[in-house]
Amino acid sequence: MSTARPGPFALWNLGFRPFYLLASAFAAVSIAVWVLQYSGAIAGGLVRGPAYHAHEMLFGYAIAVIVGFLLTAVRNWTQRETPAGGVLAAIALLWVAGRVLMLTPYPMAAGIVNALFPLAGAIAIAVPLFASGNKRNYFFIALLAGASVAIFVLHLSSMGTIALPPRASLQAGLDIVLFVVAVVAGRVIPMFTNNGVPGAGASRKAWLETASLAAILAVLALDVARGGGAVLAGVAVIAAALHLGRLCLWHPWRTLRTPLVWVLHAAYAWIPIHLVLRAGAELGWIAAPLATHALTIGVIGGMTIGMMTRTARGHTGRPLVADGAEVIAYWLVQLAAIVRVMLPLAVPVAYFWAVVASGVLWSLAFALYFVRYWPILTGPRIDGKPG
Predict the structure, then answer these.
(1) Is the four-CA dihedral 385, 69, 122, 23 of positive or negative sign?
(2) How far is the C-alpha of 8 from the C-alpha of 53, rounded, in Å?
(3) CB-CB contact of 80 with 12 (8 Å)
């Protein structure tokens, strides 16, 4: 699987290119349709309820960004090739097929194809990781395989084939993505902070790294075992404290003048918020969707928009400096999270308008990314290098 040579159309040269472009377009259009249908502006039927919405944002959007990132990162970690050209296009086509099948009355076909996508990503990164003996990153293979299982179980439960609530598989998938984000963030945010902000002094403590990640795995284990309630709430609060401590060591207040860095800190700050809200939801104090959207919009949306700009700039030979359009996109995602989570907490009667406004802000952010990055992701590197 060789890297495509530089050419006028470079979309299939490296994994981040097609998946960042597809994910941003899907994020913008799908949520716009969801908001129109939720608000009653268009007739229902295309987007079939909250379960469809949750599935597509988690196993459609988020997994696409993760696979695109890993196909790119693994090449750097191993100095071995990851899929490009026709093989990369085939993996992207598999993702597109999954989105199309979700709109058809063929749930088993949709389940199989959607489960195959992260499995294809797992195989694609397993080849160079195993060949190079890069054991440190083997767990990413297991996480993608775990996402594949969660997807298929979700489809089986949705069809009534197995006696398991669809929410259980969705929650496991959310926990898996949260763990991926926490691992990657712990590796890159301190480094990006110190490289991008002179004197930032971001640091890490080994025990805190281990404990914070273990706490998320404990939440995942409890969700898989369906052990909610006070026990899960307690674990979530402990996890929140650990991740807040982790963030404080990175000195986020020193990054405010560097958007390409602060966007990652802002996204990470939603992790302890999500975990505290998750505890509140388990105890019946708040509505569970508020905790979920702190994760999906605040953490996943914020981290992906930040990484999609930074890695796209870096891997196309551009300066690591966010321009005006990118900063606007960052703020739109943050505002979408604040409106969706904090407004209903403060003013419960505003729930409907919070959902609508948040969806509009989210769609604008990713539409802006798509328009801004179309020429960047489809064109060759400006320094003439492959990738």
Answers:
(1) negative
(2) 36
(3) no
Q: For residues 284 and 231, what is the distance between their CA atoms, to the nearest angstrom? A: 13
- Cβ partners under 8 Å of residue 252, min gap 6: 262, 265, 266, 268, 269
Q: Return the DSSP state at 297.
A: I
Asked if 299 and 271 touch (Cβ cutoff 8 Å), the reply is yes
Both tokens of 387, joined, read 């990738």
Q: Which residue type sits at 6?
A: P
Q: How far is CA 75 from the centre of its chain?
A: 20
Q: Is 342 helix (H, G, I), strand (E, B) or coil?
A: helix
Q: Tell how far CA 302 is from the center of its chain.
A: 8
Q: Which amino acid is at 329?
A: A
Full DSSP string of 155-195: HHHHTTSSSS-HHHHHHHHHHHHHHHHHHHHHHHHHHHHHH
Q: What is the torsional sign of CA 365, 378, 94, 121?
A: negative
Nearest to 192 by CA among 123, 251, 107: 251
Euclidean distance between CA atoms 305 and 324, whole angstroms: 14
Judged against a pLDDT cut of 50, whether residue 2 lies above it is answered with no
Q: pTM for the full model?
A: 0.94
Instruction: In whole angstroms, give the CA distance from residue 328 to residue 333.
Output: 9
Is residue 39 pLDDT above 90, yes or no? no
In this structure, which amino acid lies at residue 322? Answer: A
Q: What is the pLDDT of residue 185?
A: 96
